[in-house]
């Protein structure tokens, strides 16, 4: 058989084919297509389908594939499928699942189903899962699998090689065997590539990497992903406070964390929760988005009440009303540029106490420079448009003030929120726009009132 | 020696210590600290430092570490350091670098330096790099390394094991040996864990995975990262059109692509380029941000010219001027929520021709539902605030129109931009806000003019 060269259109085409078959009611055909697809591809198909189609497809999936498919799905989609499954089908689907994924699913089950699933497992598995359930979400423990291969330091490579041959298959993404003492304390690691290339008579003790870095089980998951990224790890051992080997984290789970963290910043800045399901139902989606719109309504009313303070000016000069949205708009964009940069810097750990002040100073300088440039431009534009120099002076003064404030606020707000333990990606954008709107209106309408009245 | 348990504060503390030592002028001490730090940590430190400090630190880095540190840095920072280096130090720094990183650096050099660096390499390396340079940026070829270990199908595992022992060390993140025929055509792969656990007398042909998926050298890099994510690969072979093995891509390079793609969406939506340097110089930063502000100035002027069309209404009713910013503001937020969701769906490949229409319909429905909710709320608020029911009716009518349009535009704009091959993350936000501003003002001021005048 020839090698399977990947067609870049495959998944898009599969999606189309399955949808066509579904809408023509060719259910037997769909069932066959699903049967022949890789679990990861079925997961992709489910994730890309509207809620109703998703449920129909899920009914057609082979029962022994369901577990592996669930492992591949994002949380929101996983939850919606699990909630429709009976205790028995859940128990059979979860058999043989990785401990971290199994623990996630068990966490979201009602108590009765939970017990039933637990009962269906053998003692060793049940013990492992109960262990996994004891680690809080978003820590190294919740990312960890217990499928490590541990060896002793005082035996020779030759013995290990024979042991591995008897043992048979190694867990996926195994790149290191961990060396432990009698009490399971982690002493070091031996890369399996080293086992292949070294002299078989040497003992593990002489071969092992004692500098192997281990991850404490309570480390935050985003810290874990940063370490994987920085050190290009494929897997890393996880230990408890006494240095005892508990399990290992593999790069595929870390990739999910990296993706989620990065998406979190983007979606939160737009006022969306990050586990939101693109194809979820309308009412649920509407409700989930309303919080942000509520907050924005208050922000917009605050801005309107600023304008309201200058009602007299607005009554006399319609031109002022026409021009008054320009300065807040420019401030919002300039401030958001700074904000996005600082939020990314915070997420990557680049910004800390040692350089925060420098950064605020830099962004303030950029804000002032921006202010000068755009004040000049808007002066020319408004002068040409309205033909009156007083309006042009007013708006360019307000522009300088607001863009300077925008630079300062764009840098200072996320740093401040971080200090207060509030997620800067979530609250930063709204706080910033409120400030640039209020200051922008205040500066322009205030100046206008002082000068014109 | 005990195992190195990671302190989660390490890099933050290192940053602080180096900065303190620098500012007290203890340069010898700093040089020593840098000497003892891992290359990845030095890279992190450089990335987290203001431009001037970065240059001072770079002078102090051991010359034989410079290559590895450059490999770890993001493009903008890498470029700024390279531009300061002499041809000789570049040549020595790049010796032994991975082909993909080396190709990146060579691409950004002036011709004379480029030739000098090429001359300093041995024939085989030079050939490899010239090959790597021939692949366009953002394709599988540019991510690829040529450090594959290839074997023949007709020999036994035992022979391979002896060969590997003679060969010594394997390239980093090697999890599969590739099986090729005489003409380097890829036939399959053997996981190195399989080599450890199988019967040594078996031939490679019987053992190899013929279903091994290979990546065509011209595949887009974001497609490559999607495949790695979906199939949990650690490495994958890269082939040309004839199925010839060219090299391999490893997960560490793919993680960078995933991170960059996800950050790209977030930063572009805020109007920033994604290789922007958080600690770059003020003037350069100001210039790079001005494009977006220019575009926004036009958008803001367009909105102002809409208001200008209703100058008569604004002259007579200052209240209308005060309330006119609320509807565009709500439309912008609602539209951006949809936009962020659709942009993420497009980036993950979840949205295609088969479900685009469904999605637009769903978002339109959410927009209308949102419109009803917020129209009702703003009606109550404005009635209570201004005490006049006519203003309240006007603003709630405009709100319903604008939020429905926002839902439609938030979904349709990115899909349309994607069809036109324009990056939706970059252009989507500005296009959306322009539409919600213009429609919001038009609806409110238009209704007011019809009803009140």
Automatic annotation (TrEMBL), chains A, B:
<feature type="transmembrane region" description="Helical">
    <location>
        <begin position="391"/>
        <end position="417"/>
    </location>
</feature>
<keyword id="KW-0460">Magnesium</keyword>
<comment type="function">
    <text>Acts as a magnesium transporter.</text>
</comment>
<dbReference type="Pfam" id="PF00571">
    <property type="entry name" value="CBS"/>
</dbReference>
<dbReference type="InterPro" id="IPR046342">
    <property type="entry name" value="CBS_dom_sf"/>
</dbReference>
<dbReference type="Pfam" id="PF01769">
    <property type="entry name" value="MgtE"/>
</dbReference>
<dbReference type="GO" id="GO:0005886">
    <property type="term" value="C:plasma membrane"/>
</dbReference>
<dbReference type="InterPro" id="IPR006668">
    <property type="entry name" value="Mg_transptr_MgtE_intracell_dom"/>
</dbReference>
<dbReference type="InterPro" id="IPR038076">
    <property type="entry name" value="MgtE_N_sf"/>
</dbReference>
<keyword id="KW-0129">CBS domain</keyword>
<keyword id="KW-0813">Transport</keyword>
<keyword id="KW-0479">Metal-binding</keyword>
<dbReference type="InterPro" id="IPR006667">
    <property type="entry name" value="SLC41_membr_dom"/>
</dbReference>
<dbReference type="Pfam" id="PF03448">
    <property type="entry name" value="MgtE_N"/>
</dbReference>
<feature type="transmembrane region" description="Helical">
    <location>
        <begin position="291"/>
        <end position="310"/>
    </location>
</feature>
<dbReference type="GO" id="GO:0015095">
    <property type="term" value="F:magnesium ion transmembrane transporter activity"/>
</dbReference>
<keyword id="KW-1003">Cell membrane</keyword>
<dbReference type="InterPro" id="IPR006669">
    <property type="entry name" value="MgtE_transporter"/>
</dbReference>
<keyword id="KW-0472">Membrane</keyword>
<protein>
    <recommendedName>
        <fullName>Magnesium transporter MgtE</fullName>
    </recommendedName>
</protein>
<keyword id="KW-1133">Transmembrane helix</keyword>
<dbReference type="InterPro" id="IPR036739">
    <property type="entry name" value="SLC41_membr_dom_sf"/>
</dbReference>
<comment type="subunit">
    <text>Homodimer.</text>
</comment>
<dbReference type="InterPro" id="IPR000644">
    <property type="entry name" value="CBS_dom"/>
</dbReference>
<dbReference type="GO" id="GO:0046872">
    <property type="term" value="F:metal ion binding"/>
</dbReference>
<keyword id="KW-0812">Transmembrane</keyword>
<feature type="transmembrane region" description="Helical">
    <location>
        <begin position="316"/>
        <end position="343"/>
    </location>
</feature>
<comment type="similarity">
    <text>Belongs to the SLC41A transporter family.</text>
</comment>
<feature type="domain" description="CBS">
    <location>
        <begin position="208"/>
        <end position="266"/>
    </location>
</feature>
<feature type="transmembrane region" description="Helical">
    <location>
        <begin position="364"/>
        <end position="385"/>
    </location>
</feature>
<feature type="transmembrane region" description="Helical">
    <location>
        <begin position="429"/>
        <end position="452"/>
    </location>
</feature>
